[in-house]
UniProtKB/TrEMBL annotation:
PROSITE patterns: AA_TRNA_LIGASE_II
Source organism (scientific name): Cryomorpha ignava
Every Aminoacyl-transfer RNA synthetases class-II family profile domain range: 131-466
Name the record gives this protein: Asparagine--tRNA ligase
Keywords attached to this entry: Aminoacyl-tRNA synthetase, ATP-binding, Cytoplasm, Ligase, Nucleotide-binding, Protein biosynthesis
PANTHER family membership: ASPARAGINE--TRNA LIGASE, MITOCHONDRIAL-RELATED (PTHR22594:SF34), ASPARTYL/LYSYL-TRNA SYNTHETASE (PTHR22594)
Superkingdom: Bacteria
CDD domains: AsxRS_core, EcAsnRS_like_N
One MF term in the entry's GO annotations: nucleic acid binding
Main location: cytoplasm
A GO BP entry: asparaginyl-tRNA aminoacylation
Enzyme Commission designation: 6.1.1.22
Catalytic activity: tRNA(Asn) + L-asparagine + ATP = L-asparaginyl-tRNA(Asn) + AMP + diphosphate + H(+)
């Protein structure tokens, strides 16, 4: 007799073999049919109880949410919708669930309600599917880089540098906040803090990954990052995960080749290994969109969008070319764009989606952005106006990831630091790598939750991370 998961049991040929299953009750109908789920698959298995041969008091404890163990024979199902079912001989109640108090009864719940029940929402079909897909993508990321000869680097979570130069960082301190030590000029005396200097939670592992790449050639980080940006939107989190590969002796073209191959590998992996979950999420999305006005519905379904990325070569254009295309487009001429289209301003999601979904009808990589709104570490192009940066645009979401060739020239890097207000003493170690064996190198950063949003079709980033951290919310 095997004690196994729902997924394992459903893969068996039902020939009356004895099985044992521990799982949670989804529904119990007619005092006879138990739908059981253990999270191993989107599918449930039906366990059939002969109520005349079981204690009535025990049957009253088989409620939605209860944990039970059943033993019995695996036989061909007589009903529709399943190929096999368990003919139950024994039932054990592992943990009861009071139907008057259990909040996840079998009915439709809003995403807002489920965020308030983050400790239980894993048990729903939607979140079970999301987090199985999230796991598969995480595994695929490590698998891809390992196959390509990259080394995983654990970059620090506590840092003294601000990689983005944005200043929106979470302070790390052990100082007594009721009695903060001050210097003679009235500023906080960080020399008395644990690290004897001002420290924060990291916003990126990129700079440290660059240091490793300049010795190990090909590296990547995959870890938590933190932004103290007070953005209460569907696309922002205060704590999220980032994948950041860095490659030495690589230019912007190499970087584009890597990101295209990487993203197509991940989408292909999800399509091949998460079929049941993606089909469920695609059906869920289609049902949700029926209530939306036609102009707010996505032009492609979930599976179609994934196959769109998987099968199309990415179009590569410069920022200047993108501006020209947008300014000559019908939406621009008819004043349909909400945001202005001007050289020197960043592109908005509506512009990016037009390029992907309407103009090129394929994923797009835009390169050579104006230096004025890009980070100090991006390599300055020969025109002294643009940098060797890239953004990758996907259908439905616009920008999915961004990267650049890094500035390897010491004099130019020092000048860029000065222009961007980056104090050299804070990144002296980064600058020093340009003094000893500098070489061209490149990399990109992919927000893991943005990727999971795209692959699952979810529209709010708080629904693709187990316990979202947002302004005013740090529960669970």
């Amino acid at each position: 007799m095997s004690k196994s998961s729902v997924k394992d049991i459903l893969s068996l040929d039902p020939k009356g073999q004895e099985v044992e299953l521990s799982a949670w009750v989804r529904t119990f109908r007619s005092n006879r049919f138990i739908a059981l789920s253990d999270g191993s698959t989107i599918n449930t298995i039906q366990a059939v109880v002969d109520f005349e041969n079981h204690d009535e008091a025990l049957l009253r404890k088989i409620n939605t949410g209860a944990a039970i163990t059943v033993k019995g024979k695996l036989i061909e199902s007589q009903g529709k919708g399943q190929t096999a079912e368990i003919q139950v001989s024994d039932v054990l109640i592992n943990g009861e669930s009071d139907p008057e108090k259990y909040p996840l009864q079998p009915k439709k719940h809003s995403m807002e309600f489920l965020r308030e029940k983050a400790h239980l929402r894993f048990r729903t079909n939607t979140f079970g599917a999301i987090f199985r897909v999230r796991h598969a993508l995480s595994f695929a990321i490590h698998n891809y880089f390992n196959e390509k000869g990259f080394f995983n680097i654990h970059s620090p979570i506590i840092t003294g540098s601000d990689a983005e130069g944005a200043g929106e960082m979470f302070r790390v301190t052990t100082l007594d906040l009721n009695n903060v030590p001050k210097t003679e000029d009235g500023k906080v005396d960080f020399s008395e803090d644990f690290f004897e200097s001002e420290t924060n939670l990291t916003v990126s592992g990129q700079l440290e990954a660059e240091l490793a790449a300049l010795a190990l050639r090909k590296v990547y980080t995959f870890g938590p990052t933190f932004r103290a940006e007070n953005s209460n939107t569907s696309r922002h989190l205060a704590e999220f995960w980032m994948i950041e590969p860095e490659v030495a002796f690589a230019n912007l073209t190499d970087n584009m080749d890597l990101v295209e191959d990487f993203l197509q590998y991940l989408v292909d992996y999800a399509l091949k290994n998460c079929k049941d979950d993606l089909e469920f999420l695609a059906q869920r999305e289609a049902e949700e969109e029926k209530s939306l006005p036609q102009n707010e519905r996505r032009p492609m379904g979930l599976i179609e969008r994934l196959e769109f990325v998987q099968s199309n070569k990415f179009q590569r254009i410069t920022y200047t070319e993108a501006i020209d295309i947008l300014r000559n487009s019908k939406p621009y001429k008819k004043k349909k764009f909400k945001f202005p289209v001007e050289w020197g301003t960043d592109l908005q999601s509506e512009h990016e989606r037009f390029l992907v979904e309407k103009h090129f009808e394929k994923p797009v990589i835009i390169t050579d952005y104006p230096a004025s709104f890009k980070a100090f570490y991006m390599r300055l192009n020969d025109d002294n106006k643009t940098v060797a940066a890239m953004d990758v645009l996907f259908p439905g979401v616009g920008e999915i990831t961004g990267g650049s060739q890094r500035e390897e020239r010491l004099d130019v890097l020092l000048r860029r630091c000065k222009e961007m207000g980056i104090e050299e003493e804070h990144v002296w170690w980064y600058i020093e790598t340009r003094k000893f064996g500098t070489c061209e190198h490149a990399g990109f950063g992919l927000g893991f939750e943005r990727l999971v949003m795209f692959v699952t079709g979810m529209t709010n980033i708080r629904d693709v991370i187990p316990f979202p951290r947002t302004p005013g919310h740090c529960e669970f």
